[in-house]
Structures are given as structure tokens and as C-alpha cells.
Design brief:
The chain contains 6 helices and 12 strands. The chain has helices at residues 9-18, 67-83, 134-137, 143-147, 153-172, 176-186, and strands spanning 2-3, 26-29, 50-57, 88-90, 94-97, 100-111, 117-126, 194-199, 202-211, 217-221, 224-228, 234-235. A 7-stranded mixed beta sheet has the order 1-2-3-7-6-5-4, sandwiched between helices. A 5-stranded antiparallel beta sheet has the order 11-10-9-8-12, with no helix packed on it.
Length: 236
């Protein structure tokens, strides 16, 4: 389903999922007026400048823990297949080129009135340079900005959806190690970097070392290894 404008592709996909739409339904908008990312942040969606997409998924239980990890791998692979650009991944699910953010992923779980579970997987990719607000412009990049040439949004979308289908199949068939290994390769620039997060007793610091089999970030601190499974991570 394609729309010239929506408040949020995730919101419409969630409403459709709650009404029982079949798995694989894709909602795409040319612009969003209230797009959002992780931690309740807004996702700037200038008209015609990006891909703003949400999918309805009904994953088996064993696929859910690594769904966003697999999505990160797939978006990076789809971008590479469509453009030749090789982005990197930053835990938990952001897509970067160097120090600038290229794409983001947001997964939201829900259920129908009858109790059937679903996940809405949304992703946004910056395709063209755009007039972003200052705070976003300082950290964002785009496919065309990196490549210095035009990019066909349809090709990027098709390759990303194909890669998502392939990585989702890996998780459904019980092949999480393949997905995790692919994620580690794409996230290699992240390992060894300092991270900071808020713990119960204030700010904590450590060095990012790996992800474990559940997709948690493994950080080495003065007290040993810690697993981070959610929350805001600040990279330095």
C-alpha cells in the first residue's frame, strides 16, 4: 500500500494488523507527518527524500528475539545490493556510514482482539539530501549524499524487502547463528568503542565487545562483562 502522506506508516500497519491483515502487508509513504523512531523520538520524513516503510509480520516465538537484529542486517544488505554502498550497523538497530546515520528501524509488537500476536517492523532510509532540522542535519547522511549520484528508490525498496524476506526465513527456520554472524561483520566498526548508559546508580561506562546469542550488547566494564538488552546507549 502506497500513500503520498501518512502520519506514521507504523500506526497504519498496526491498525491493519489488529484487523487481521495477512502477514507481509507493506505500508509505504512518500512523507510522514508524525514518523517516530526509538525512545519516542520523531523521525524526520521530508517528502520524496526517503523510504518510509512498515511491514506486518506474524513471527513464530523463536524468531522474535532477533527480529530487529535480522532487520538491521537485511536493510544494510539491501542498500549494498541496490547501490554498492556498504553501511555499518550500530547496536541495537541503526544503519550508519562513518559517523552519520543513514537508516533506522523500529519494531513494535501488538495483538488483535482475539489474541493473535503480530510485529510491525518499520524502517526509514534517507535517500536524498534534504533540509533536515539542524540537530538532525549534523548527524544524518543519505544514499545520494554518500554516492554523489542519483538513486532509484524503487530499487532500494525491492532489494531491502528481498533481504528482509531472506533473513526472516533464516530466523523462522532456526538459523539464528547465520544472522548473528552477518550482524557482527557489519557491526565490526562498533566493537572496541566506548559506550555509556544509565544504570540504577547513575551513568555507567564500558567497551562494546560483542553481541550474545540473544542479541544483547556485551560490554566490558571495570567489574567484568555486562549484557545490555535495552535502553539508550551513548557512543564515543
Amino acid at each position: 500500500m502506497w500513500y503520498s502522506e501518512l502520519s506514521s506508516t507504523n500506526d497504519l500497519a498496526a491498525a491493519l494488523a489488529e484487523r487481521g491483515v495477512r502477514e507481509g502487508c507493506v505500508v509505504i509513504a512518500d512523507t510522514q507527518t508524525a514518523g517516530r523512531g526509538r525512545q519516542g523520538r520523531s523521525w524526520c520524513s521530508p517528502p520524496g527524500a526517503g523510504l518510509y516503510v512498515s511491514l506486518v509480520m506474524r513471527p513464530p516465538a523463536r524468531a522474535i528475539p532477533l527480529l530487529t537484529v535480522g532487520a538491521g542486517v537485511a536493510i544494510a544488505e539491501g542498500i549494498r545490493a541496490a547501490t554498492g554502498l556498504t553501511p555499518a550497523l550500530k547496536w541495537p538497530n541503526d544503519v550508519y556510514v562513518g559517523s552519520r546515520k543513514l537508516a533506522g528501524i523500529l519494531a513494535e509488537a501488538g495483538s488483535t482482539a482475539g489474541g493473535a500476536q503480530h510485529v510491525v517492523l518499520g524502517f526509514g532510509i534517507n535517500v536524498l539530501p534534504a533540509a533536515y532540522p539542524r540537530e538532525i542535519a549534523e548527524t544524518a547522511t543519505s544514499l545520494e549524499g554518500e554516492l554523489g549520484r542519483s538513486v532509484d528508490r524503487g530499487t532500494v525498496l525491492a532489494e531491502c524487502l528481498a533481504a528482509l524476506a531472506a533473513r526472516y526465513d533464516d530466523l523462522q527456520r532456526g538459523r539464528p547463528a547465520i544472522v548473528l554472524d552477518a550482524w557482527r561483520v557489519l557491526a565490526r566498526p562498533m566493537f572496541g568503542r566506548s559506550v555509556e548508559w544509565d544504570g540504577r546508580e547513575g551513568a555507567r561506562r564500558g567497551i562494546a565487545e560483542d553481541v550474545d546469542d540473544s542479541g544483547a550488547l556485551v560490554v566490558r566494564t571495570e567489574g567484568g562483562l555486562e549484557r545490555l538488552i535495552s535502553g539508550e546507549i551513548r557512543w564515543s
